[in-house]
Amino acid sequence: MKEVGQKKTPKIILYVFLTISALISIFPFYWMFVIGSNATNSVNAFPPAVVPGPFFAENAAKVFERINFFQALFNSFVISTAVTLSVLFFCTLAGFAFSKLQFKGRDGLFIFLLATMMIPPQLGLIPNFMVISWLGWIDDLRAVIVPAMVTAFGVFWMRQYVQSSVPFELIEAARIDGCSNFRTFWNIVIPAVRPGLATLGIFTFMGTWNDFLWPLVVLKDRSVHTIQIALRTLNDVYYTDYSMILSGTFMATIPIIIIFLILNRQFIAGVTDGAIK
C-alpha cells in the first residue's frame, strides 16, 4: 500500500501543476473577453471588473463601424494561409534535400542558412522595401506573402525532422522501385513527417497572423490592411476605448485558436516525437 501511495502523490502534484499552468495560460484570453464585454469606465474602476459584462455585442458593433473588420480578417487569412502552405512545401523540400541527398557544398550551405537566423529581420526592412517598391507591389498582398515563402527556421526544423523520422533504407527502397527524388519526397517523406508539418504550420500561421511591422510598411491602403493594422487604427489621439479595442482583439484571436484545435493532436505529436525517440 505504501508503494501505491508513493506513486499517486507525484501524479497528483503533476495534475495540480498542469491545471495551474493551464489556468494561467487561459487567463489572458479570459481577461481580454472580460474587458471587451464591459464598458471602459468599469474597466478603469477599482477594483476592476473580473466577470464578463453585457456590452460585448455593443463594443463589437463599434469595431465594425470603425474598420472593415471582415475584410481585414480575410486579408490576414489569405496571407497567413498562403505563407503557411508555401513554407510547409518549400521548407520540407529543402529539409529533405539537406538531410537525404548528397551534393557538393551541402553542409556549408546549411551552415550559411543557419547563420542567417542570427541576422535581425529589421536590418532587411529597407532593402526589402526597395525591392518591393521596384516590383510595384506596394499595397499588394504579394508584398507580404512572397518574402515569407521560405524561412531559415522552417528549413532547419524540417531538416532535423526528416533526418530523424525517415531512415535511409526507406529512401533507398524507393529509389530501387524507380521513384524519382520528387516522388520519393511526395509519397514517402511527406506522410512520414506530418506531425512536424503540423507543428511548423501552427508556428508559421501564428507568426504571420500576428506580424505587424512589415505589413504596416508595405500595406498603406485600407482595403488591404491586415487585422493587426486595422486594430491599430482603433486608437484615437485623445481617448482610447479599451473595451472596443479588446473586443476586436478577442474576435481576431479566434481564428488562431481554431487552427490550433484542428492541428492540436499533430502538434503535440510533432513536439514530443523527438523526445520519445
Structure at a glance:
The chain has helices spanning 2-36, 40-43, 56-66, 69-100, 106-116, 125-135, 142-145, 152-165, 168-176, 181-192, 194-209, 213-218, 227-232, 242-262, 264-276. It has 277 residues and is an all-alpha fold.
Care to describe what's here?
Keywords: Cell membrane, Membrane, Transmembrane, Transmembrane helix, Transport. InterPro entries: MetI-like, MetI-like_sf. It is a multi-pass membrane protein. It comes from Evansella cellulosilytica (strain ATCC 21833 / DSM 2522 / FERM P-1141 / JCM 9156 / N-4). It is found in: Cell membrane. Helix content is 74%, strand content 0%. The protein has a domain of 167 residues: MetI-like fold (Orthogonal Bundle), CATH 1.10.3720. With 277 residues, the protein is an all-alpha fold. Helix 1 crosses helix 14 and helix 3 crosses helix 14. It is globular.
Q: Outline the biggest β-sheet.
A: none
Shape: globular
Q: In angstroms, what separates the terminal alpha carbons?
A: 34 Å
- With helices defined by DSSP (H or I, 4 residues minimum), what is the helix count? 15
Proportion of beta-strand residues: under 5%
Category from helices, strands and their pairing: mainly alpha
Topology:
Elements: H1 2-36, H2 40-43, H3 56-66, H4 69-100, H5 106-116, H6 125-135, H7 142-145, H8 152-165, H9 168-176, H10 181-192, H11 194-209, H12 213-218, H13 227-232, H14 242-262, H15 264-276
Helix pairs in contact: 1-14, 3-14, 4-8, 4-11, 8-11, 11-15
Feature tags:
277 residues; mainly alpha; MetI-like fold; 74% helix; globular
